[in-house]
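User: Hi! Is it possible to get a structure for several chains at once, not just one? Here's what I have:
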Amino acid sequence: MYEKSPTNEWISNVVRYRKFSGSWAWLLHRITGLGLTVYVLVHINTLASLQEGPEAFNAKMQVFMQPHWLFAAWILFGLVIYHTLNGIRIVIIDFGRGAKYHKQLLYGAIAVGLVVFLWMGYIIFFGHSDHDFLSYAVSFFS
Amino acid sequence: MKIKLRLFRYNPETDTKPHYKTYEVEADKKEKVLDLLHRVKWEQDGTLAFRRSCAHGICGSCAMTVNGENMLTCEALIGNLKKQHTITIDPLPSLPVIKDLIVNMDTFYQKYTVIKPYLINNNPPPPTERLQSMQEQRLIDESTWCIMCGACSTSCPSNWSNPDFLGPAALLKAYRFIFDSRDDGAGERLNILDHSDGVWRCRTIFNCVEACPKEIDVTFHLSQLKKAIVTREI
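Assistant: Yes, the chains can be modeled jointly so their relative placement is included. Here is the combined structure:
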């Protein structure tokens, strides 16, 4: 009998098997989950500079205000919004009757996510005259 | 139309590794993929090995991966395939290959035995039959359509990454008995399913639903099992 090693087989199956909307939703959920895990490490590293006083922290925050870091923050927001909305979709599937309309739930999540994502892009890049996202966010939520 | 049939070949007596062999066959769009396999075996290469029995979507023996998607070859019309001029056929994924397109389904059937796929009822049987209302029957009707072809369990990424996962087919069978009004074994079956290799390894990917030739909404039934586990009384 011919048997592949389980790891090789798993990876080649994921790559080769036809993807349906549910498979894409699952793959994206996993990829965004990994992205968020990496972000948590960056986040903890940034917060660790608080131990060195406010100047060190502010210096780091200045770095994150540079345009390419703002763009990274926007992409990060994309990961968060997809992971959140698809997470809600999974809860509805598991504990509601969502399995009956899982495709519509996914398309709905993508539509809502895209609108919120673009809206956040506007806030980040054009929302404030001096592009100060943090103070804008603080004033927005207070 | 001319069709290139790219078939997974493996002979345990002569091959160390499987390979693909391409055959050219003449076919009509209204024919089934199984017809092409027959044509190759009967007219071109008698050494080709594959399973089939009824050829009418009832016995479940001809499930294979056609163009990267699990289906019954006897139900797969060539005209309905996305890619028609070159059709690639593999054996069901994640099961050991015995020869060519034939897989060893031992583990698939062993998983059924785990969930006790038989009526558990210690009451003495009534003089006639154990009656059900129409509503009670409707609850389990869809789950009884399963023909145990294995297309769902072998399409499941959770099963690919963890061969110990019970898989959608066995879990659907568990649903069929757990929600059967005549059965008293729900508690012990739910205890078996409430495990990391049980129903919780279902990640709602829906490959099983796409693969099922009987169009059973497997994931919906699994979600009902999850609900039954978290809402049951201790």
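Residues 92 and 129 of chain A are 41 Å apart (CA to CA). The radius of gyration of chain A is 20 Å.

User: Great, thank you!
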